[in-house]
Design goal:
By secondary structure, the protein is an alpha/beta fold. 53% of the residues lie in helices and 13% in strands. The chain has helices at residues 17-29, 44-54, 62-68, 81-88, 106-110, 145-156, 169-177, 179-196, 201-222, 226-233, 239-249, 252-273, and strands at residues 10-13, 37-40, 57-59, 71-74, 96-99, 118-123, 133-139, 159-163. An eight-stranded mixed sheet has the order 3-2-1-4-5-6-7-8, with helices on both faces. α7 crosses α12 and α8 crosses α9 (201-222). The chain starts with 9 loop residues before the first strand and ends with a helix.
Length: 275
């Protein structure tokens, strides 16, 4: 086994797409051996898919999986989380518990457990499926430095990790959690623009998608302020500044800011509905 391999048993309660992304990342990175992973899901199709793809044990008994594990990842829908936690309260005693349920505060999970919990809240996003995600991590009050580092190592298997105060997690959800959908919409809109001015659809989509990917990579590799990078592309009297002018007239920045705000408020509402 590689030296970096984590010698802990990890159970994922829920085997949806994000759990699938995490399992794939754990195995591909060498962090965990398949024998140290288990997953559960009520859906037979999901169980079969995950078992066949990754060769790990997948079942329906949440309590058994949680009791076996050192680390339990709660990868269920926010509306389902309260019932799942109630059922697992005894089995989670002494475990490091990582929740990726959008909008659900750690306080609400802790109140349902029978002991002081070592809880970590995480907000990953969809590009984790390609190991290109970004996850925000917020350790609870009973989490040790070693626990927090373990959680971070696990999430780094599917992309970048930032650590934030839990009070900011709804904002993270509104930005990076929902953000891939905004980016897909931008790709579609840019491609539509290309088609409008004569480009074939396949060419337009390729140009749009690679342009966004390349622009993101420029910031990642340079660390320059996005405004400065924009200014480097927009030469005086050129095509880019003409396009930027139209975006400003249409309220492009304001609309994106409002989208993040609206998604943030929805995340807060989901948390309240699960209390």
């Amino acid at each position: 086994m590689p030296e970096a391999t984590i010698q802990r048993n990890v159970a994922l309660i829920g085997a949806g797409q994000m759990a699938e992304a995490l399992i794939g990342g754990f195995l591909e990175s060498g962090l965990l051996a398949s024998s140290r992973l288990r997953a559960t899901d009520p859906d037979a199709g999901r169980r079969d898919l995950v078992a066949r793809r990754f060769g790990i044990a997948v079942g329906v008994d949440n309590r058994d999986a949680a009791a076996w594990a050192d680390v339990v990842i709660l990868a269920v829908k926010p509306q389902t989380l309260p019932a799942v936690v109630d059922d697992l309260a005894a089995a989670l005693d002494g475990k490091l518990v990582i929740s990726i349920a959008a909008g659900v505060p750690l306080r609400q999970i802790a109140e349902r457990l029978k002991s002081e919990a070592r809880l970590v809240r995480v907000m990953p996003n969809a590009p984790a499926l390609l190991r290109a995600g970004v996850s925000a991590l917020s350790p609870g009050p009973n989490v040790s430095g070693e626990d927090a580092q373990l959680a971070r190592r696990l999430l780094e298997a599917v992309g970048r990790v930032v650590v934030v105060n839990e009070s900011l997690m709804d904002a993270v959800t509104g930005l990076s959690g929902s953000g891939p959908a905004y980016a897909f919409l931008m790709i579609e809109a840019l491609a539509d623009g290309g088609v409008k001015v004569g480009l074939p659809r396949d060419v337009a989509v390729t140009l749009a998608a690679q342009t966004l990917a390349g622009a993101a990579k420029m910031w990642i590799e340079t660390g320059e302020h996005p405004g400065r990078l924009k200014d480097r592309v927009a030469s005086p009297g050129g095509t880019t500044i003409a396009g930027l002018h139209e975006l400003e007239k249409g309220g492009f920045r304001s609309v994106l800011m409002k989208a993040v705000e609206a998604a943030t408020e929805r995340s807060k509402a989901l948390g309240r509905s699960c209390s």
